[in-house]
Structures are given as C-alpha cells and as structure tokens.
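Field guide to reading this record: the first block holds the primary sequence, the second block holds the structure written as discrete tokens, and the final block holds curator observations. Each block starts with its own label. This record concerns PDGLE domain-containing protein, catalogued under organism Actinomadura algeriensis.

BLOCK 1 — SEQUENCE
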Amino acid sequence: MQTKRFFAGFLVVSLILAGIVSYYASSSPDGLEKVASDKGMAAQEREHALAGSPFGDYGVEGVDDGRLSGGLAGVLGVGLVLVVSGGLFWTIRRRGGSEARSEPRAEPRTD
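BLOCK 2 — STRUCTURE
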C-alpha cells in the first residue's frame, strides 16, 4: 500500500512540476545557447529534424500561447514517460516472474 502511495505522490509532484512550475521557466536562452551565440557557433546551427513534430521545441503544435504550450507538453511528456516506462516495467516483471516460477526452490535443511 505504501508503494502505491509513493508512486501516486511522485506522479502528482511530477505533473505539478511539468504543468504548473514550467509556466514560470525562463524563456531566455539556456547557458549552452548563450555560449554558442557568444562564441559564434550559433551561425552553424540548423533546425532539428524533429522540430516540426507535435512536441517539437518544448511545446505542443497548434497551441499559440507559449507558456500554456510548454506546460501542456510537460504534462503530456510525463504521461508518455509513465506509459512507456510502466509498459517496460510490466513486461520485465512478467518475464522475470515466469522464470522465477520455473526454477526449483531450495528446501530448507532440517538436520
């Protein structure tokens, strides 16, 4: 029961951070972009191959408000990570469980 409460709390905190706190994130370039701009490397930059994807550039395509788009992308990203990682965990757990059941158990010594 405590494990379920932990994961529920973790999910709520993740959604709050992704959906609400990201609203207050700076829209200024990060440190790497600043250094690239200062050193002249920014002239060589090209658009990322996935820039036109639904989650390209930390936003959701079709949502005009930048901050709302970023928060929505965060919430959807948390959900996507949860589904993919949960599916992997469930698959690995099932495979590990079937192998563990097929191995003979060691009987405790009684002498």
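BLOCK 3 — OBSERVATIONS
The chain has three helices and no strands.
The mean pLDDT is 83.
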